[in-house]
Amino acid sequence: MIKLLLADDQDILTEGLKLILGNEEDIEIVGTANNGKKAYELCRIRKPDLVLMDIQMPEVNGVEATAMIKKDFPHTKVIVLTTFNDDEYIYHALKNGASGYLLKDTSPTDILKAVRTVYNGGALIQSEVAVKVIDKFSQLAKETVDKHIDTRVELLTDREIEICRLIAEGKNNKEIADELFLSQGTVKNHITKILIKLDLRDRTQLAIFSIKNEL
């Protein structure tokens, strides 16, 4: 028997879901909550196997409630059911431990399928939602790579970082010398030391390194 908790602040939807899901022989509705805080408290008292969770609710929203539930009741599974086809909501709900994400226009048959699939250890995300999930995680992965700072940056002095920044801007030794009030010979010596520290071959590699590491 699947012990199911319904969390939604729209009574008409909750009653509809109770009618649809509660008539199934393998599903028992163990409680309803109209906000995320109550959903969390009912998880502690009723110990549901699965929560069907709305996103936009008062006091504590569904994303935050999912995080709280998965932290303290890790065996309780969560399916997010919402009208919000928004990649930020999707990403954070799944990141917080939701095992499924369905839109509220999902057919009763598909909701039942999702409940049983997730209860049995699977995950289920609607196809149109899955596209957004893939795009979001791809974007975040790219941002993580783009923002990765090479540890060799820590080897540089503040003056050397200034020179790297100016090289990245395309300035030659004379222009750098004039801006930093140094001789061209001193600038050249600094660049030689920087290349050795960073194990780079030439000025072009240094410019690329500086841009990638946002110097």
What is the terminal separation in angstroms? 59 Å
Please bin the fraction of helical residues. 55-70%
Identify low-pLDDT runs: none
- Per CATH, the class of the largest domain reads Alpha Beta
Which topology of the largest domain does CATH recognise? Answer: Rossmann fold
Number of domains: 2
Mean pLDDT: 85
Strands ordered across the widest β-sheet: 2-1-3-4-5-6
Number of helices: 10
Order of helices and strands: EHEHEHEHEHEHHHHH
CATH architecture of the largest domain: 3-Layer(aba) Sandwich
Global shape: rod-shaped
Rg, rounded, reads 27 Å
Q: How does the helix and strand content classify structurally?
A: alpha/beta
The CATH homologous superfamily of the largest domain corresponds to Response regulator
Query: Biggest β-sheet, characterized?
Result: 6 strands, parallel
Q: Which band does the percent of strand residues land in?
A: 5-15%
